Amino acid sequence: MRLIVGLGNPGKLYDKTRHNIGFEVIDRLSESLKIPLDQAKLKGIYGMGFVNGEKLILLKPLTYMNLSGESIRAVMDYYDIALEDLLVIYDDLDLPVGKIRLRQKGSAGGHNGMKSTIAHLGSQEFNRIRVGIDRPPAGMSVVDYVLDRFREDEQEIMDDVIKKCAEACEAWLQKPFIQVMNEYNQ
């Protein structure tokens, strides 16, 4: 069984914000894989389906970003999912808008959702897709920036990035993550 998690904040207020790019990728996967997000428990909303004969869970934690690890841990424990069968998608200030970076391990890099995830999993060694949102302009706080929506010119780029991230996730369901990294980290 595999688990793909998109990090974000629940509620209309946070819809389409920079910090919710993980949720947008999960929505895209839900649509393309025809796995409805129809279960609300374990501190998240998720859906289950089969892809290539293997069970897959798509999860959007509803704990708010800073507590994302609570939901991820609960789902992994409940369904007995191994660390190597987890993929987490989240926004990254250290990458330019439109850039994605796949990694098999790493630190939280200051991202509170990843700090929570790492703390609850007790490990930094799990698959992830970092989605670039760039740094805030001078004079704007990081909090205001990540909770802001993309500019119109950026949104076009992000629509392509969401599609590319979903494709990378789907590729992982067919081949080893290291191979997917080599294909999508170019």
UniProtKB/TrEMBL annotation:
One of its GO terms (cellular component) is cytoplasm. It catalyses: an N-acyl-L-alpha-aminoacyl-tRNA + H2O = an N-acyl-L-amino acid + a tRNA + H(+). Its main location: cytoplasm. GO terms for biological process: protein quality control for misfolded or incompletely synthesized proteins; rescue of stalled ribosome. The record marks 91 as: Stabilizes the basic form of H active site to accept a proton. The active site is at residue 19. TRNA binds at residues 14, 64, 66, 112. Pfam families: Pept_tRNA_hydro. It is an enzyme of class 3 (hydrolase). The record marks 9 as: Discriminates between blocked and unblocked aminoacyl-tRNA. NCBIfam families: pth. Monomer. Catalyzes the release of premature peptidyl moieties from peptidyl-tRNA molecules trapped in stalled 50S ribosomal subunits, and thus maintains levels of free tRNAs and 50S ribosomes. Hydrolyzes ribosome-free peptidyl-tRNAs (with 1 or more amino acids incorporated), which drop off the ribosome during protein synthesis, or as a result of ribosome stalling. Belongs to the PTH family. This is Peptidyl-tRNA hydrolase. It comes from Bacillus methanolicus (strain MGA3 / ATCC 53907). The lineage of its organism: Bacteria, Bacillati, Bacillota, Bacilli, Bacillales. The gene is pth.
